[in-house]
Amino acid sequence: MRSALLCCGAALLIAAGMPASAAGETPLGRWLAPDAAQHTVSTIELYLEGNELAGRVVEVVDRDGRPLAGICARCPDELRGRPIAGMRFLWGLHEKDGRWTGGKVIDLRDGLTQGVIANADLEIDGDRLTLHAYLGVRALGQSRTWRRAGVAAVDAPR
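and the corresponding structure tokens:
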């Protein structure tokens, strides 16, 4: 009995010293990404492509929960004119010290920046994930916070 308790205690100490993602927090799965400016919520699926993390848009809904069928009018090359739902927009992230870094992201929001490809990093904190996108200087980038789908309801922005 005592050896079982010591073993469990050692496992807890080892897990406490691990980076968050190694201790059980994973970016894999579905996330809800609200966009207050567009009055939408996107469902995002993060998955592995080999050792790299990638993401695709599952669906985009409006403030009333109705699916939107947008296209990426300003995306580069073969992505131009394709439906946003189902599109791979995030790729190439590698895990390092509990963070996912070194990836790329395409801005799929309507407007002047649609189709711009930027650098991307992700951090996970429980049921929240922060995507930080930047061109050149990381400090001048933008961050978006997503919530894990199914953990807590996220209403569409009003």
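(Above: one complete record from the training split.) The CA atoms of residues 57 and 86 lie 5 Å apart.
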